What does this fold into?
Amino acid sequence: MQGAEFEQVYDFGNLYAGFLKARRGKRHKPSVAKFEANLLEALCLLSEMLKTKTYRPSDYFVFKVYEPKERIVMTNAFKDKVVQHSLCDNILEPAFSKAFIRDNYASQSGRGTHDGLYRLEEFMRSYYFTRKANAERERILKAAHQRALQQQETMLREAQEQAARTLKRADEQIELEKKQARNELKNEVSDMAVQIAGAVLARDVKPAEHEALIDSFIDGLGDSHD
It folds into this structure.
């Protein structure tokens, strides 16, 4: 403990505040009444003893109580209670409370039972609504995932159907063009046969001339397609 900090312990104002706390609920006791009757001298003496480091705590007073069961109780002198309050309130509590979490409510100013109950209610509400929000979020994500899968399957099926229709139309067009080509070929062959038959009937055609005639008609047919 630094010198400046220890000065707060024997400060007269802090000792008086410690006396008020130690007296609370005990004014009917003789030791408290005796101390209060000589309050100014008692506090000045305590301050001087602490300042000169000659203060020594008194021995504990030991006694038994029997309600609700038998047990030994140890209590210190009233002057020592005053010093304890001054020490704890001005030195120990500020030093230790810095390391405490927000939800430590043990004998701390402004953090009593009601504060603990309010914080518990806040946590319970937050936990409930957080769980509810998380559940709703999971439900939405799951529904969106299912819709995405359904849309993906629908798009794939429609693409496959469109491709099948395109292939079918292409096959039909090819078959139509083949049919048209066969019909045109049949017509040209028929025309060629008629022309050959007419030439044969018009004059006596020898076998060699017959072959040459057919070749010329075929060549003419090729020229007409070109």
About this structure: The chain has a mean pLDDT of 83. Residues 10 and 47 are 5 Å apart (CA to CA). Helices lie at 3-9, 12-23, 30-37, 39-51, 78-97, 113-202, 207-225.
